[in-house]
């Protein structure tokens, strides 16, 4: 298209070709914007950026416990508006060796008079520790269903692998409670508050 | 050009609808209002864009003055904080999407066909449609001010969840109006690309095109690439608000940070969309009034293209404090600093063009020279903001406000004004009143600097942006800024006066209105007749 063309027929053809190509590019970019949503999640999971942990159970790696290092693992639990639950942990902080398997118990408590579904969503800080955190058992893999006033205990079994970067001395796990509308649609947000009792 | 056709009666025009279509080739044109509604002339549509943009410039300017009036003194005195937030948001949206972008599209409409020797834009009816989407879009946007819950109040960047979970009910209208404005820009971009690639005068190669055409071609490609992403983001917002999805809501497995990534993937190229055509304008004006050929034409083209490509790799420098990993902070910091290289090439080329030129200081040249100096100041504060560790201090302070207003007001807006003064003789056949233009220039330069220079200091001292109140130690800087804003705003009335006087009369301009102007548009009479280059001109390459 470097040769300018001003005979009417040629110009018309050229214009049509340009329009078709630009419209194709537009459609492609619009699709790309939506493709970025899953790509972003995949990217975060692969690189461990953003503190996203694996959402399914992993096997314990049997490796020698690194007795030379002690890592502080802290737990923070948060409720959220729309779910009248409490999440508690038996100890706010544990000291562990890399390679060692640890168990910590969490307590879910439904403070309301309705039964409801909820889920605890994890986040790890610093984010580059998330690739070295292996969860064998976690309540965060699934949704919980609590009757009015019910209290359940759920364990977290985890392991920090030996290749945890040496500059990391403290790992913080944050669990935030979110309401879940329907059991079968785990990622569906509950838009209106107080609908959780229908399940 | 006078038309002596009898005015058709309504009966005639309905019964002869088919004949009317054929008649359009015989210059039978609707008159009065319908002439403007139905026009397909690139010159009339260009004028419509420019008039629309000027209107929006004043509306957005009034919103800015409300903000500056509230900030004149510490404490809350004039407006409610909620209304203040609506004013900052609407000011940004109107100025970016309603004033600066349509002004450049208007200039492209007028000048691109004239500069490449084309009879009109490639798709004249589409051109009409893309303009008339704009008044609809912005009427809708402005109408949100009168809705229950008020207008959008989350800043022009509309970060989720402020713009989703916590947004006023009018947000859905805001999304619709932004969709319309976006479609308008996209259609305009398609038209400009199709015109430039297919309708150049015989003999004009790509590397013979004036730089305003080049920069607009690259800008149009940026628009094609990023406006669909903006459309995607606001569609996701729409679904989050109305259809229960959770793209940006952590409660449903989404991520608010994703919004920022998507927004700035659009937003950073967008800021170059706002400045690249300005580079083209200045590259036309400086050689004209220095009476020298532009220094480094090819390097200007390559620099513009490099800036456009790099603009896709730097978006996260708007998000340094969001919790990026160190490696990302470093990547985006260095990539951002890299943009200073092609931009520096441009600034040095302009300066070298001026070197040993025989310079005169007509109004367009005054604005172009002010552009070079003041835009460079904005570029330097941009470099400071690019330093990731320092940005933790500057982020969301008035330093950022100072930076982007320096590149947008004495940058983009001054370039638009320079273009208007430069091409007014071609549009109207009259020179703009020189003395009044100078008054407009000097009041604007003083007003702009009074307004935005003190913001550097209040920002470095820690004054946060988008807050209607501030600590006492910022009182003096803010008072100066507010007085400067009033001066700058009022001096734009002189601009309107100059334009109105120039349309109505004044010193007659010849075809080649400026002594040093060489491009094709100066070969047609002033004012440019409705139809130009019906037979393609013979383009002759200037002898080097």
TrEMBL record, chain A:
Gene Ontology MF: a single term: copper ion binding
InterPro entries, per database record: CtaG/Cox11_dom_sf, Cyt_c_oxidase_assmbl_CtaG
Leader sequence segment: none
Keyword terms of this UniProt record: Copper, Membrane, Signal-anchor, Transmembrane, Transmembrane helix
Cell compartments where the protein resides: Cell inner membrane
One Pfam family hit: CtaG_Cox11
Keyword Nucleus: no
Record's bilayer topology term: Single-pass type II membrane protein
A GO cellular component annotation in the UniProt record: plasma membrane
Source domain of life: Bacteria
Task performed by this protein: Exerts its effect at some terminal stage of cytochrome c oxidase synthesis, probably by being involved in the insertion of the copper B into subunit I.
PANTHER family: CYTOCHROME C OXIDASE ASSEMBLY PROTEIN COX11, MITOCHONDRIAL-RELATED (PTHR21320:SF3), CYTOCHROME C OXIDASE ASSEMBLY PROTEIN COX11-RELATED (PTHR21320)
Family: Belongs to the COX11/CtaG family.
Protein name from the UniProt record: Cytochrome c oxidase assembly protein CtaG
Origin organism lineage: Bacteria, Pseudomonadati, Pseudomonadota, Gammaproteobacteria, Oceanospirillales
From TrEMBL, chain B:
One BP term from GO: respiratory electron transport chain
Compartments (UniProt record): Cell membrane; Membrane
GO MF, any single term: heme binding
EC numbers: 7.1.1.9
Region (Disordered): 1-26
Keywords: Cell membrane, Copper, Electron transport, Heme, Iron, Membrane, Metal-binding, Respiratory chain, Translocase, Transmembrane, Transmembrane helix, Transport
Membrane topology note: Multi-pass membrane protein
Pathway(s) of this molecule: Energy metabolism; oxidative phosphorylation
GO cellular component labels: plasma membrane; respiratory chain complex IV
Pfam families linked: COX1
Top EC class for this record: translocase
Alphabetical list of InterPro entries matching this protein: Cyt_c_oxase-like_su1_dom, Cyt_c_oxase-like_su1_sf, Cyt_C_Oxase_1, Cyt_c_Oxase_su1_BS, Cyt_c_oxase_su1_dom, Cyt_c_oxidase_su1_bac
Reactions that this protein is recorded to catalyse: 4 Fe(II)-[cytochrome c] + O2 + 8 H(+)(in) = 4 Fe(III)-[cytochrome c] + 2 H2O + 4 H(+)(out)
Residues spanning the membrane: 48-69, 89-110, 131-151, 171-199, 211-239, 271-290, 297-316, 322-345, 366-388, 400-424, 436-457, 477-503
Domain Cytochrome oxidase subunit I profile positions: 36-540
Major localisation: membrane
The keyword Protein transport appears for this protein: no
Similarity comment: Belongs to the heme-copper respiratory oxidase family.
Primary role: Cytochrome c oxidase is the component of the respiratory chain that catalyzes the reduction of oxygen to water. Subunits 1-3 form the functional core of the enzyme complex. CO I is the catalytic subunit of the enzyme. Electrons originating in cytochrome c are transferred via the copper A center of subunit 2 and heme A of subunit 1 to the bimetallic center formed by heme A3 and copper B.
Name this protein carries in UniProt: Cytochrome c oxidase subunit 1
Species for this entry: Halomonas korlensis
